[in-house]
Design a protein that fits this description.
Structural class of chain A: alpha/beta
Order of helices and strands of chain B: EHEHHHEHHEHEHEHEHEHHEHEHEHEHEH
Structural class of chain B: alpha/beta
Distance between the termini of chain B: 41 Å
CATH topology of the largest domain in chain B: Rossmann fold
Largest sheet of chain A: 6 strands, mixed
Largest sheet of chain B: 5 strands, parallel
Number of helices of chain A: 21
Number of strands of chain B: 13
CATH architecture of the domain at 317-489 in chain A: 3-Layer(aba) Sandwich
Strand content of chain B: 5-15%
Number of strands of chain A: 15
Strand order of the largest sheet of chain A: 1-12-11-10-13-14
Shape of chain A: globular
Number of domains of chain B: 3
Helix content of chain A: 40-55%
Shape of chain B: globular
Oligomer: heterodimer
Strand content of chain A: 5-15%
CATH superfamily of the domain at 317-489 in chain A: Nitrogenase molybdenum iron protein domain
Helix content of chain B: 40-55%
CATH topology of the domain at 317-489 in chain A: Rossmann fold
Chain lengths: 493, 441
């Protein structure tokens, strides 16, 4: 278990804290067993393609706090993702009936001379200007490779500005070069929130924290009849709401890859119980998850009724879908825990999962509880998954594999990946809303979309006819793991 | 001018990866941190293309490359790129991590160049400049380190020209603009190296750059450094048209400038002038046909212009909208971080925007500040804003129509739309009035 340490301004990266890896080839069962024995080795790639970095993932959680502003202490290029998140933010406002409002994001615009003389003064002036312009309830400062290497004292500057401006000015340390696992950025954002925004509880409430991105609001239906109220964290929260998440009755994560740190931190520091079962995907997974909710919220009886009623409702439908999907094969590429969730869904629906390229692997989460291992749950419930590849968004490996496997369906949960399925004529599905496949209804939702995708072959067939392939013939004939090797021993957990 | 930037509309020096992606069958190799490339693609990319987006090779440099140096890592990624990616040209671009640490990337690529590999490098650490500036750096690097190996000049082809116009992808309409510019120059009787995009001949075309009779720069300031380099290296003269030519007046003026600069004989000149006359008459036939609408539409059409654009677009659109549609310029904000040495010339062009009028323009990288100023607008008539996706609320607030012609675009999908030339002028009018008319129930 990683010990949450709020004294340090920076959270340890996942490689060190959890022993997480970005390269593996084998079966899911082998990975799980290595991980549980503490024998996981990371593999590095001698050839690699661009990934993502922590700063983007930190920003994704900080950028939609409705009354905060974000300063990126970086050259302007690092803020290239600002508009994308602003777009998501605004679509989310529309879905939540909030008035339109622009995300307030700023770049300190580091230039060559700043790398020589340092730029804390520039940072301080930017924060002051942001305060005057936006009048926010808090200002987050996200760092960059450049600010990190030149060694600007961001923490000291933030602390001084907190006193000067009388609002929290909070450093969030998410330099891209520090970790190969971009989801470390989630931990950075949560660390800065728990450390500098969240206050000790004054009372207990009937709220349940839902750690999520910006997906649909599906938890009211479950929690309200039980007398609880979902509180979606962090996007679309206010600073005042975040101050009180320590008072919640429980924390639910829609994906432990996202919320591992904040779930554990709220439990360890403020005693908010975290639901530790893997998120509710597939029937068995949903049963277990619901039962834990029942226990934690002291509503076991009601939950049993929900389970019974929902089984009766969905089982006949699931069986119909299984019949229709019989014999179909699928390949999957996605982030870690959500990938495990989709595997559960696919297997529940009777599809054969021919393999998966999953962006990284956390052998354990911050809560230290093996119950939360969603991949272990998949293997236990549905059997092993062959060709399970931990692959940090390396399209060249994916294309090579898809070209061999030629599944009936590819599922991707990240931009930039779908096109490779489609170019090979494989119907490809990307579902953005992380809540779409959640719970019992999620199985039906996914099944319907899968059938639709399998049925709609016209676009991909035509696209495949007219596509070019930037990969060499030589490469497509090699083993997909030719560049994977050079094991780096990860033994720090 | 502010030093901070709210609402960024351009990228850092490394943003020039998109310049490489815009060359047919060329691929950038990033010697940078893991997230740089995707952030650039987020802002100015337009999908994977041939080998952009998630295909781009990258060292994904981490702590160990920074502490112990990453030269071995770079070599191994370059080796892999040659094996895995099917391309004609590989361009190594450094990011902040490598440039702060000070690795000798030139030496590494020189080894591959000596082995006959089609590879060049450029120092493009994000903090060094913007993707406008580094566009010149990279184009010059390709000329100096690759083209020059194949062709040292001395074989001038009569009528062959190189075109250096807007920065691909940073100009969201680059493909359409280049298509129209090439069409027009071919119409004059020239042979055109357009160098980027679907209408270019890829790396083979680049190899003929030294053979051009002259070079054409169509930009407020980007590209002059390339033309100067070529002048020095191969003695190629160049002509500079300092903004995007849009519509009848400016396109004709651009083409006339080219005719004057080209050593056409009388027959060629007559043919070129006939081409212009024909193009102009087509352009104005559409304007004439719809002039009554523009004069009569009783519910209001925009009569004033605000823009938040780069200098090339700002000048091009301000001139076009004023002189051909009668839309009067209010304050124009130039957001491209124009180097000081070019600012005065650009401001002078705004001062003499038409025979009768001077337009107010300011250099301002902090579009958030510009936007706050525009929000105070109290004008009596309907305004038009030319800007980016960031201006949605601003436009609504002041009741203006918004046409997005700058990154970040996001609310439009761009295939081959372009605003340059006669056809681009017609397209601009269609798009503006499409937005206007769409506001009525």
């Amino acid at each position: 278990m990683s010990e949450i340490n709020l004294h340090e301004p920076e959270v340890l990266i996942r490689e060190i804290r959890l022993g997480s890896i970005t390269g593996f080839e084998g079966t899911a069962g082998e990975l799980v067993s290595c991980a549980h024995k503490g024998e996981l080795h990371d593999s590095t790639r001698s050839f690699s393609q661009c990934m993502g970095c922590s700063s983007g993932n930190a920003f994704c959680q900080l950028s939609m706090i409705t009354d905060a502003a974000v300063v990126n202490h970086a050259p302007v290029g690092c803020a290239g993702d600002a508009f994308g998140f602003n777009f998501v933010y605004r679509v989310g406002q529309q879905e939540r009936n909030l008035p339109p409002s622009i995300g307030r994001y700023f770049s300190t615009n580091l230039e060559e001379r700043d790398t020589v003389f340092g730029a804390v003064e520039k940072l301080a002036n930017t924060v002051r200007e942001v305060y005057a312009r936006v009048n926010p309830k808090a200002i987050f400062i996200t760092t960059s490779c450049a600010s990190g290497i030149i060694g600007d004292d961001v923490e000291g500057t933030a602390n001084e500005l907190t006193k000067e401006l009388k609002i929290p000015v909070v450093g969030c340390f998410c330099e891209g070069f520090k970790s190969r696992i971009w989801t470390t950025g989630f931990d950075s954002a949560y660390h800065s929130i728990v450390r500098s925004i969240v206050k000790p509880p004054e009372k207990k409430t009937n709220k349940v924290n839902i750690i999520n991105f910006w997906g649909s609001h599906i938890f009211e239906e479950l929690l309200e009849p039980l007398g609880y109220e979902p509180q979606y964290v962090v996007p679309f929260s206010t600073i005042a709401e975040l101050e009180h998440i320590s008072e919640a009755a429980a924390t639910i994560q829609i994906c432990p890859t996202l919320g591992t740190y904040i779930g554990a931190a709220l439990e360890q520091v403020y005693g908010v119980p975290e639901i530790k079962s893997p998120p509710a995907y597939g029937i068995a997974g949903t049963d277990a998850w619901l039962r834990e909710i029942g226990q934690v919220l002291n509503r076991s009886e009601e939950i049993e009724k929900v389970i019974e009623k929902e089984h009766a409702r969905i089982l006949p439908l699931v069986n119909e879908y299984r019949e229709k999907l019989k014999g179909k094969t699928a390949y999957l590429t996605a982030g870690a825990a959500h990938g495990h969730a989709i595997i559960a869904l696919l297997r529940e629906l009777g599809l054969e999962v021919k393999g998966a390229a999953i962006f990284h692997h956390d052998p354990i989460y911050d809560n230290g509880d093996p119950t939360s291992d969603a991949l272990a749950h998949d293997v236990r419930t549905y059997g092993d998954i062959k060709n399970y590849n931990v692959c940090s968004k390396q399209a060249y490996e994916l294309v090579n594999i898809l070209n061999r496997v030629r599944p009936d369906l590819m599922i991707a949960r990240h931009g930039g990946m779908t096109v490779w399925g489609a170019k090979l004529g494989v119907p490809t599905l990307l579902i953005g809303d992380e809540q779409f496949g959640f719970g019992y209804q999620g199985i039906l939702n996914y099944a319907e979309r899968i059938l639709e995708t399998l049925d709609n072959r016209e676009f991909v067939t035509n696209l495949a006819k007219h596509s070019s392939m930037p990969y060499t013939k030589w490469w497509l004939e090699q083993s997909p793991f030719s560049f994977l090797g050079g094991n780096t021993h990860v033994d720090t957990y | 001018m502010s030093t901070l930037i709210e609402q960024p509309r351009y990228s850092c020096a490394l943003g020039v990866q998109q310049t490489v992606v815009a060359i047919k069958r060329a691929v950038p190799i990033l010697y940078s941190g893991p997230g740089c490339s995707i952030k650039i693609s987020d802002l100015i990319g337009q999908g994977e293309g041939y080998a952009g987006g998630s295909t781009i090779p990258c060292t994904n440099s981490g702590e160990s490359e920074i502490v112990y140096g990453g030269e071995d890592r770079l070599r191994s990624v370059i080796d892999g790129a040659f094996q895995v990616i099917d391309a004609d040209l590989y361009v190594v671009l450094t990011g902040c991590t490598s440039d702060i640490v000070g690795d000798d990337v030139g030496q590494i690529t020189a080894d591959y160049q000596a082995a006959g590999r089609p590879i060049v490098y450029a120092e493009t650490g994000g903090f060094k400049s913007t993707n406008y500036v580094s566009h010149e750096v990279v184009v010059n690097a390709i000329i100096d380190q690759y083209v020059h190996i194949w062709n040292q000049g001395g074989h001038v082809q009569k009528g062959l020209v190189n075109v250096f116009a807007t920065v691909p992808y940073q100009d969201p309409y680059w493909n359409g603009n280049l298509e129209e510019i090439k069409r027009l120059l071919v119409g004059l009787g020239l042979k055109v190296n357009i160098l980027f995009g679907q209408h270019s001949g890829g790396v083979e075309e680049w190899k003929t750059i030294p053979d051009a009779e002259f070079n054409i720069v169509i930009n407020a300031w980007v590209g002059k450094g390339i033309a100067e380099n070529l002048k020095e290296k191969y003695g190629t003269p160049y002509t500079h048209f300092p903004y995007l030519p849009i519509g009848g007046i400016e396109t004709t003026s651009f083409l006339n400038q080219i005719i004057d600069f080209a050593n056409f004989d009388e027959i060629q000149k007559a043919a070129a002038l006939a081409f212009i006359a024909e193009e102009e008459s087509i352009f104005y036939s559409h304007i004439e046909r719809t002039a009554d609408f523009m004069l009569e539409f009783r519910y209001g059409i925009p009569r004033r212009l605000y823009s938040l654009l780069d200098a090339t677009y700002a000048l091009g659109f301000t001139k076009f909208l004023l002189n051909e549609l009668g839309i009067i310029p209010e304050h124009q904000y130039i957001i491209d971080n124009t180097p000081e040495e070019f600012q005065e010339e650009i401001l002078n062009r705004f001062t003499s925007i038409s025979e009768f009028r001077s337009a107010k323009a300011t250099f301002e990288i902090d579009a958030g500040k510009a936007s706050e100023e525009i929000a105070k607008d109290t004008g009596k008539s309907r305004a038009l804003i030319l800007g980016s996706g960031w201006e949605r609320d601003l436009a609504q607030k002041i009741g203006a129509d918004l046409l997005i012609v700058s990154v970040p675009v996001s609310y439009r999908l761009i295939l081959n739309c372009g605003y340059a030339g006669y056809r681009g002028g017609l397209r601009a009018i269609e798009d503006i009035f499409d937005r206007v008319l769409d506001t009525y129930r």
